[in-house]
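Thread amino acids onto this structure.
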């Protein structure tokens, strides 16, 4: 295999990685439970938090817990998609991403 072929393959891989990363970045991830709905983009930036029901003052602690759980769920969704789309490529590059 010559150097030009290796460089062409590396450039193609770089374009493929960038395309998949942009796809992940532009995906909206949502988690919803009885009290809240949270949305993040693939960059792990919070897009919105929506309170779905009227909340009594004594339910605020539970609401806080629900927000935390929903946020954790969304982060797991993002990480899973990143692993699915970039995992095979990343493992071949020694974990660069």
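Threaded sequence (97 positions):
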């Amino acid at each position: 295999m010559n150097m030009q072929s290796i460089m062409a393959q590396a450039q193609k891989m770089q374009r493929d990685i960038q395309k998949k990363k942009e796809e992940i970045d532009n995906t909206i991830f949502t988690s919803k439970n009885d009290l809240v709905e949270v949305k993040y983009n693939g960059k792990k930036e919070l897009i919105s938090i929506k309170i779905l029901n009227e909340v009594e003052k004594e339910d605020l602690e539970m609401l806080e817990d629900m927000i935390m759980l929903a946020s954790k769920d969304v982060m797991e969704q993002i990480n899973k998609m990143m692993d699915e789309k970039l995992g095979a490529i990343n493992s071949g590059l020694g974990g660069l991403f």
